[in-house]
Every structure is written in C-alpha cells, then in structure tokens.
Write a structure and sequence with these properties.
The complex is a heterodimer of chains A (about 110) and B (about 400). By secondary structure, chain A is α+β, with helices and mostly antiparallel strands. In chain A, about 15% of the residues lie in helices and about 20% in strands. Chain A has a five-stranded mixed sheet. Chain A is globular and about 30 Å long. The termini of chain A are far apart. With about 400 residues, chain B is an alpha/beta fold. Chain B is globular. In chain B, about 25% of the residues lie in helices and about 30% in strands. Chain B has a five-stranded parallel sheet with strand order 3-2-1-7-19. Chain B has a five-stranded parallel sheet with strand order 9-16-10-11-12. Chain B has three domains: about 170 residues, FAD/NAD(P)-binding domain (3-Layer(bba) Sandwich), CATH 3.50.50.60; about 130 residues, FAD/NAD(P)-binding domain; about 80 residues, 2-Layer Sandwich (Enolase-like, domain 1). Chain B is built from eleven helices and 26 strands. The chains are: A alpha+beta (about 110), B alpha/beta (about 400). At the A-B interface, helix 1 and helix 2 of A face helix 2, helix 8 and helix 9 of B.
Chain lengths: ~110, ~400
C-alpha cells in the first residue's frame, strides 16, 4: 500500500495511505484532507481537486491533456505541475509520492 | 437553542454532505445518518456510465471508507425512516427504534418514475437508481444484442452510449421531438442526436412505449405506442423521477412538487431542513420561483449550506446550478438555468463536436451549455455567478471567447 505525502499550502504535512488503482483525489478525500473537495466524484467535471504534483514526480503521470487541461485553465494559480488529482491513478512503485495542495480550490 | 443531535434521513449525496460538512464546520454533537440501502454511502452518477462499463470499481463509488464514519463519530444506520413525530422531535424507524433529534434533515432523494405498461415486470427491464440496479444490469448490458431505451434524457442516453459501445443495436423511444429536450437547447440536442446516430443509436421521436413482450418471463421485444415491434433482450428506462415526499407529507410538512423549503432550506417546521432531489427551493436563477433540481452540485452545495446554518452561519442559498453528463466521448456541461431563454449564440461548431451554446433571456446570459469545451463551462460558471453583464451582441463578435471575456470583466 503506497504512502502518499500531501503538503498543505501552509506547510502542514499529511501522510496518507493510497491503494493501487485509486485516484490521488480519492486517497486525499478518504483521508479527510483539507483542501481537496472532489465534488463531482472524479468525473473531471468540477475542478475542485486541483493539486501540484511535486517536481520529482511529475513525469510519473501521463501528461495533462484534453478536458483536464481546459479545466485547469480556470483554477486559481495554475502552474506547470498543476493537475486535477482525480485524473492521477496511483500505481505500483508510487510509494512516497508527494503532492502539494493549493491555498484554495477557487 | 443548543444543538446536540442532528438526524439525517437519506444517505445519498445530499445526506452524506450534510454529515461531512457538519464535522468540517466543527459541530461536535451527535450525527445519525439513516440510509435504507446496504453498504456505505456512494455516488450515483457513474452507475449509468463509468461503473456500468467497469471503468471504475465499487470502492471508487464510495464517498468515504468505513473509518471515516467511525473516526468522525457519524452513526450510520441501515434502516428505513417510517414516521416523523414532530411534537416529540423524533424519527421512528422500521425496526421500531425511535431516534430523537434537535434538528432533522430530510434528504430522501427520489425514485424512478415507473414504466407502467403491460409486461414491464419482465426480467430484463431496468431503471437505474441504485448500485444494486447497476450490479444486476452490468452483466446483462454486456451480453445484450438488442437494447431499447425508453426516454432520451441524461440517464437513458448515457446508457444508450454504453450499450452502443458494447456493440448492441440500440433504439431510443422518446415522447418529445429531440434528445434531452427538457434540459438543453435545440442546437445542443442536434449535436447529441447526430453523435448518437453515428454510434449506431436509432431514435424514435414522438414515440411512446405500448407494451413489453416477453418469453419465459424474459423480455423479448417492445411494442411502441404506434404498434411497431422492436426486438429487445434488454430494456432500460429513464423517464424522470418522483421525489420521496411520503415521510414529509405524513408529517404534515408543506409539499410543492417536493418538500417545500425557504431560501435557508428550512421546511415549514423550523426544526427540519430538506435538500437535494427531494426539496423544492426558491431558486434565484429561476426568479425565486420554486424549483427541484436533481444534480450532484445541488445536493453538495445545499448540504454545505445547511451545515453552515446549523453551526450558526446562516446565508440564503444562491449557488449557481451546474450539471454534467458523459455520453460516449462527449462531455456535456451546463452552467445556469436556461428556462425561458429567447436567444442563443453558438461558439464552436456542431461538426467539430465542440460547441458551446450561450442562452440569453431578455439580453441577459442565463445559461451556457458546453460540449467538449470544458474551458467555456468553467468560465461560464464564474460569469454567471456575478451580476449579468455579457450581452448577445458582445458574444456575437467574431473571435469572442468566454475565458478572455471573463478575465477582462472581473470586478
């Protein structure tokens, strides 16, 4: 079971257990983390699961494209490592994945 | 009055949200979440698409794992509420248990309008509402060769797309003259009609269902209202829902196409709130006229609003309605309420499959429908949440883009 590290914008660290095949969004909401809402449940329809994948891990996921890309254009403070975490699937070997949370989803 | 116990009837999207938001807001009293389905509370939208296709697991449907309810001290009760005793402020359950409340939240949702034609009790005739429905339907949907869908609304068309992708012959019977007529503009309907037809779906518009034929108890065909027979080994209907108001009705609460609530989502009893599919609320996007919305956004935002009020932060409910449906490779997103629109401006083209239809009423933007233009949808949500300013004339200027306009017109 991979352990994920989420870092709030104020620096607070959260260690969270994820399941292989689960989305990073659901790992966060299941662990009741503040800062990730995931209102639409993972359908890439609401853009309330915005997060920044740590630079060291960016290349481990397929690049941003399509719907996710356009949705991200409207989040506050999009950066090069911005993702909608519902679109990131946890895979084998992702133990230690580090994700930074934005100050706000709006 | 101090609030020591909140009882929530209905553990769907809205009921769950009230419980989760109450804890997020710091409420420390008792929370009892009563649901009549087995298992943990789950999301329904994937039932007619991703879950049915096997793209997501049963775990992915859950709002939260079991630990959440334990750690957050939310008592999850699998039972049916059968009566509300408003004088003594308690809910009576089918098991005989009486659950006292300081505040009660009614979030019973809605049930599918039944298909009331001869033969509808045959095996292989489905509405999709619960996970149990989807679990029973999924293997049949994979095997089915001839599918008839009754109703060209969101759920019916989501399933039609699934069935066509599975290689079945699909006929859709619809009383109206176009897909999703109740929800979207003709321009957008036309795009979806063409897309479904390209996937092999056959539409029968202005056509009701007469009866369902069966052999050995299993569905074998459908006879349309006009007498045309279509072969079918699977029938799925999505012909609207009926709000589950019985409990509220018997408790003497005001009902108006749903449990009637005020702008604070309070019923005619100040100790009882209601939300989601079952509640009829004064909608500011509908000129404060009562409206009942069946959507995730509505349940989530109303759940948050009720939780906030219960911890002493009341505010009238004004959130902008938004909706989505995924059909095949098309994502339709709707922001706002288009009722009574009298003018449209289209961005993109139907041929490209990327189209946004801006709906105006009295020259004010009231809704934006976007197909595979999620950037437009997100910009529209921001624009529609503010006082109206965008005019049809501006939107018709060649090269107009919602996102750029939104960025240039922030307060």
């Amino acid at each position: 079971m991979p352990t994920l590290t989420f870092i709030e914008h104020n620096g607070t660290l959260h260690q969270v257990h994820g399941e292989v095949g689960q989305s990073v969004m659901q790992a966060a909401t299941f662990a009741m983390l503040p800062g990730i809402q995931g209102d639409c449940g993972g359908a890439c329809s609401c853009a309330t699961c915005h997060a920044y994948v740590d630079e060291a891990w960016v290349d481990r996921f397929p690049p941003v494209a399509g719907t996710e890309d356009e949705m991200l254009d409207n989040v506050s403070e999009r950066r090069a490592n911005s993702r909608l975490s519902c679109q990131l699937v946890i895979e084998e070997g992702m133990d230690g994945l580090m994700v930074h949370l934005p100050a706000s989803q709006y | 009055m101090t609030l020591n116990s909140v009882v929530i009837v209905g553990a769907g999207q809205g009921g769950f949200q009230v419980a989760a938001s109450l804890r997020q807001e710091g409420y420390q009293g008792a929370i009892t979440l009563i649901g009549d389905e087995p298992g943990l509370p789950y999301q329904r939208p994937p039932l007619s698409k991703a879950y049915l296709l096997g793209k997501i697991s049963a775990t992915a449907l859950l709002f939260r794992p079991m630990d959440f309810y334990t750690q957050q001290n939310i008592e999850l009760v699998h039972d049916q509420a059968v009566a509300v005793d408003r004088n003594n402020r308690q809910v009576r359950l089918a098991s005989g248990r009486a659950v006292p409340y300081d505040h009660l939240v009614l979030a019973m949702g809605a049930h599918n309008r039944p298909l009331s034609v001869p033969g509808a009790d045959a095996h292989g005739v489905f509405g999709i509402k619960t996970k149990a429905d989807a679990d029973e339907l999924a293997p049949l949907a994979k095997e089915a060769r001839h599918v008839v869908v009754v109703g060209a609304g969101f759920v019916g068309l989501e399933f039609a797309a699934v069935a066509a992708a599975n290689g079945a012959t699909v006929h859709v019977l619809e009383l109206g003259d176009r897909p999703m007529a109740r929800a979207i503009s003709r321009e957008m309907s036309d795009l979806f009609r063409a897309a479904h037809e390209a996937w092999g779906v056959h539409f029968e518009f202005r056509q009701g269902i007469g009866q369902i034929l069966s052999e050995g108890g299993k569905v074998s065909g459908v006879v349309t209202a006009e007498g045309k027979t279509l072969p079918a080994d699977l029938v799925v209907y999505g012909i609207g829902v009926i709000p589950n108001v019985q409990l509220a009705l018997e408790a003497g609460l005001d009902i108006d196409n749903g449990i009637k609530v005020d702008s604070n989502l309070l019923t005619s009893d100040a100790h009882i709130s209601s939300l989601g599919d079952v509640a009829s609320f004064p909608c500011i996007q509908n000129g404060q006229k009562p409206l009942r919305l069946e959507s995730v956004q509505n349940a989530v935002d109303q759940g948050r609003a009720i939780a906030a009020r219960l911890v002493g932060k009341p505010a009238p409910y004004t959130a902008l309605p938004w909706f989505w449906t995924d059909q095949g490779n098309l994502k339709l997103q709707i922001a706002g309420m288009s009722m009574g629109y009298d003018n449209t401006v289209a961005l993109g083209t139907p041929e490209s499959g990327q189209l946004s239809v801006l709906c105006f009423r009295d020259d004010q933007l009231v809704a934006v429908e976007s197909c595979n233009r999620p950037g437009d949808h997100m910009a529209a949500r921001k624009i529609l949440a503010r006082p109206p300013r965008l005019t049809p004339a501006e939107a018709q200027v060649p090269g107009f883009e919602l996102k750029a306009w939104e960025a240039a017109n922030r307060d």
